[in-house]
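Thread: Newbie trying to understand structure tokens

Hi all, I'm a second-year student working on a class project, and my supervisor (Dr. K.) asked me to get a predicted structure for one chain before our next meeting. I've only ever worked with sequences, so writing a 3D structure as a token string is new to me. If someone could post the tokens and maybe explain what I'm looking at, I'd be very grateful. Here's the chain:
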Amino acid sequence: MTQRFIIDGRLPGQNEIYKALNSHRHSGSRQKKQWTQSIAWMAIGAHLKPVTGKCRVRFLWFEPNKRRDYDNIRAGAKFILDGLVEAKVLEDDGWRVITGLEDQFYTDKERPRIEVEIIEEPA
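---
Reply by user tm_fold:
Sure, no problem. This is what the structure looks like when written as tokens:
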């Protein structure tokens, strides 16, 4: 079974995360907590069901342009996985539950977003 939800807009990249961490010692952790909670609420709003076994997670990153590097963009995966755990969609975001992460990158000037697919592995 595959479940899917969409995060409209962009998440902070690795550069923004480092900048927040360097500006004030609590700024980075506050930002992580806010994004994690926001994504948890999005997952709950999407009516995602708890994953009972192992799964792969696919991220389709739609950026408005090609200014950010892939590794900078994909730093947002941390917020997404932690949000899925907080929403109790995933029991854990470690090796015991997740068998792999996949990324695909696109541009969409009109509607930047992240499409997240949770692909359950056969038992």
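A couple of things are worth pointing out once you decode it. The longest helix spans residues 27-45. The two ends are 11 Å apart (CA to CA). Feel free to ask follow-ups in this thread.
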